[in-house]
């Protein structure tokens, strides 16, 4: 494994460690041409650009609503399934979004 000298986090691949190191160095070489915001990873810039283009490549099969990120679609789908994967350990109540549990 490849270990980060700053925080001790380990990675199976050297390339993953190289990407991770940018979080410590503050290096953000990927810049948005529209608003100037910069990112440490090109994939984060690609995702950000969707704000400007309006692209929403992840569509809900039930209602057709589109999302910028797959994780947002997965969270949205709980509206249709009723899934509540975040239980409160004290009251038996559960939540569909982790931040709702935190707020509770």
From TrEMBL:
Coiled coil located at which positions? none
Residue span(s) of domain C2H2-type: 2-29, 30-57, 58-85
Q: Known SUPFAM superfamilies for this protein?
A: beta-beta-alpha zinc fingers (SSF57667)
Q: Which UniProt keywords apply?
A: Metal-binding, Nucleus, Repeat, Transcription, Transcription regulation, Zinc, Zinc-finger
Q: Which Pfam families match?
A: zf-C2H2
The primary location reported for this protein is: nucleus
Q: Does the keyword Transcription regulation apply?
A: yes
Q: Which GO terms describe its molecular function?
A: DNA-binding transcription factor activity, RNA polymerase II-specific; RNA polymerase II cis-regulatory region sequence-specific DNA binding; zinc ion binding
Q: Which InterPro entries match?
A: Znf_C2H2_sf, Znf_C2H2_type
Spell out the residue ranges making up region: Disordered: 76-104
Record field: compositional bias (Polar residues): 93-104
Q: Which domain of life is it from?
A: Eukaryota
Where is it located?
Nucleus
Cellular component annotations (GO), alphabetically ordered: nucleus
PANTHER family with a match to the protein in the record: ZINC FINGER AND SCAN DOMAIN-CONTAINING, ZINC FINGER AND SCAN DOMAIN-CONTAINING PROTEIN 20
| Family as reported in the entry's similarity comment | Belongs to the krueppel C2H2-type zinc-finger protein family.
Q: What is this protein called?
A: ZIK1 protein
The protein's organism comes out as Grallaria varia (variegated antpitta)
Q: Which gene encodes it?
A: Zik1
